[in-house]
Write a structure and sequence with these properties.
Number of helices: 19
Helix content: 40-55%
Radius of gyration: 40 Å
Largest sheet: 3 strands, antiparallel
Low-confidence stretches: 1-8, 476-481
Order of helices and strands: HHEHHHEEHHHHHHHHHHHHEHEEH
Strand order of the largest sheet: 1-3-2
Strand content: 5-15%
Distance between the termini: 61 Å
Number of domains: 3
Shape: flat
Structural class: mainly alpha
Length: 481
């Protein structure tokens, strides 16, 4: 029985033994195998992969890698009897190991067994592959995506209301990427401090710092065409949408209609929270960039100092000093004799002032905070909306209005001609025009009580010109027949 603690745990939805796959001696092989299965075997979304195809693909991977694997210490429980008779049972061992640890699941499709990744394990694998490949991201693309989502939600609130939540989700993902970049840079800085030779130092700098974690459009951050030039537009757009009560109501109505909120009040609260998330993220961009700049300056200063003094710490400089000492010892000069040594040192003390020292990037001032205020509603616009709703209510013809109109016109009679129907007001005209649709309502009659019959002539009045007709009340016996 699953307890509450198990369902609410951080890894509660993952298979229980999913991490056990990386605990054995073959963990490197299984890591490469999972990446191979995800990229080549289960790459097509609509394709069903059978159990036999999966086992053959694993065997092909083992032969291609050419690894000397030993599965004796990891005897799986879902091992088929066919594995004992197969020429290469290692593929069955690997397949059964993936089943035991919950990475793969089997399903039955009519007469054959199909295999796929466990859905939660697939999400974990994608996260692991993303960590492996690095998190390089275009800042300009992220900013433009948030702006496009908000703009589409503002221009099409009836159909694009979900874009507000997507914009908040993209903003939070962008914020997390900023924090991960600063964390990765600090980690690389710590690795640089631990290096003891030039080769490893430059390798760490260029491979880990520049190639893996540097931002794609990092060089544009200091230019006029920088990725954050739309940040002010995003802040103004989000605040303007939050202050537009009619827009918020339209977006909330769409969310309720699409089933993403229980009522309009909760939908409006969610929308305002998402817009505030976007505002908070893009207001704090400067603080994140300041951390990036500070860490970058320390890393580059360390590499620059190493390049400057590399000839003094290299093995060649040591050999030169040793050779000079040996030659001086063989010269026969007394220990206190002066020796003229040419050098390139400066004869005067270099100027050291504030201008010669390193200056960190100037921190930008905190942006002005604007209160989210709601604009006052225009009484004229409210009156127009109220009159428009009243007009739509009068023009909308309901079954009750049709019945009341016909009963008032017939006054107890069984038949009434078109000329005898009341047609003096706009309300009468709305109902009169809809009477001609009676043959198409409820299988030729309206609720089985009235029937329209064409007389062959024309009815002409100041309101309308149409084929003449009469309305006849249908008897209960005829209705039953």
């Amino acid at each position: 029985m699953t307890t509450v603690a198990e369902t609410t745990a951080l890894f509660g939805k993952l298979p229980a033994d999913v991490f056990r796959l990386f605990a054995g001696s073959n963990r490197g092989f299984y890591a490469d195998l999972l990446e191979y299965l995800d990229g080549e075997v289960f790459a097509v979304a609509g394709e069903l992969v059978s159990k036999r195809e999966t086992i053959d693909a694993i065997g092909e991977f083992i032969r291609r890698e050419g690894q000397d694997l030993d599965f004796t210490a990891e005897r799986p429980t879902h091992l088929d009897a066919e594995a004992e008779r197969d020429t290469d049972p290692r593929r069955f061992f690997a397949y059964a190991r993936l089943l035991d640890t919950g990475w793969l699941v089997e399903h039955r499709d009519r007469y054959r067994r199909i295999v796929d990744f466990d859905p939660d394990a697939r999400l974990l694998l994608q996260a692991l592959l993303e960590i492996k490949s690095g998190r390089m991201r275009s800042y300009g693309g992220e900013v433009l995506q948030v702006q496009a989502l908000l703009d589409s939600a503002r221009t099409q609130p009836g159909t694009k209301s979900e874009n507000v939540a997507n914009a908040a989700r993209s903003a939070k993902s962008f914020r997390n990427h900023l924090r991960s970049v600063t964390g990765a840079m600090r980690k690389i800085e710590a690795l640089l401090v631990q290096q003891t030779n030039l080769k490893s130092l430059f390798g760490t700098y260029f491979e880990d710092f520049v190639a893996e974690h540097l931002i794609v459009d990092y060089k544009r951050l200091h230019t006029q065409d920088n990725p954050f030039r739309y940040r002010v537009d995003i802040l103004d757009l989000a605040q303007e949408m939050a202050n537009d009560r009619e827009l918020v109501d339209a977006l909330a109505t769409a969310m309720v209609r699409e089933g993403r909120a229980a009522d309009s009040e909760r939908a409006a609260t969610t929308l305002l929270a998402d817009l505030q998330t976007v505002v908070t993220v893009f207001q704090a961009v400067d603080d994140h960039l300041e951390l990036v700049y500070a860490t970058q300056s320390r890393i580059e200063r360390r590499v620059r100092n190493t390049v400057r003094y590399m000839d003094r710490i290299s093995e060649i400089a040591t050999h030169r000093i040793t050779a000079a000492i040996e030659m001086l010892g063989q010269s026969g000069l007394p220990s206190d004799a002066p020796v003229a040594v040419p050098h390139a040192f400066a004869t005067v003390r270099p100027a050291v002032s504030e201008a010669n020292l390193y200056h960190p990037a100037r921190k930008r001032g905190e942006p002005e905070r604007k209160a989210l205020t709601r604009r006052r509603r225009d009484p004229a616009h409210d009156a127009f909306r109220r009159d428009l709703r009243q007009y739509h209510e009068r023009a909308r013809i309901t079954p009750e209005k049709l019945v009341a109109y016909l009963e008032r016109a017939m006054a107890g009679r069984d038949t009434v001609a078109a000329a005898e129907l009341p047609l003096a007001t706009l309300d009468d005209f709305f109902v009169f025009e809809r009477l001609r649709d009676l043959p198409y309502l409820a299988d030729g009659g309206f609720r089985g009580h009235y029937r329209l019959e064409l007389t062959g002539g024309w009815f002409v009045s100041a309101w309308i010109a149409c084929p003449d007709f009469r309305i006849r009340r249908v008897e209960s016996q005829e209705t039953a027949a």
